[in-house]
């Protein structure tokens, strides 16, 4: 059995736009990916570590525990051995209380990759490969979350290119989710249910090439 850790935020937690409800496992993209891999004969298990509001490396001034760097190395230690870690973060870096741009988030992703690679795992356990997934660009935020993400559609410009550049520099796998999905037509930030299905299938194809199983 090969374990895949998905380390992400509400886009992977499966929040239903404009609500505080959650899609069932089989309908959110990590579940779609697991089922797709299992049906193809891969013996895998997806471990979801997806926290609403999680940033790459910054704190939320209103909610504790949203800094993705804090405790990441220990999560790798807890869940090892891991065959793959999927990082899909960045959207919350552009909340209205932050002045970050795409370059800042790319440096945050680089710090997370380094933390994963340097985690204190047990001897002889593999250092897992990392797949960075750039989230789709924020569209015009709508509904209850509009004040929280005001201006995010401008601050996030160039995120995928910045992530890809960092991944090339430090030899890390990369996937641009905007090649297959867009942000929700309902709230402009999250993923609609049909986008989860599309992304899960696409990432199953990518993961299958990295698992060597």
From TrEMBL:
Keywords carried by this UniProt record: Hydrolase
Coiled coil regions, renumbered to chain: none
InterPro entries: SGNH_hydro, SGNH_hydro_sf
CDD domains: SGNH_arylesterase_like (cd01839)
Iron is among the record's keywords: no
Residue span(s) of domain SGNH hydrolase-type esterase: 9-184
Record-level Gene Ontology MF annotations: hydrolase activity
Protein name (record): SGNH/GDSL hydrolase family protein
Organism: Alcaligenes endophyticus
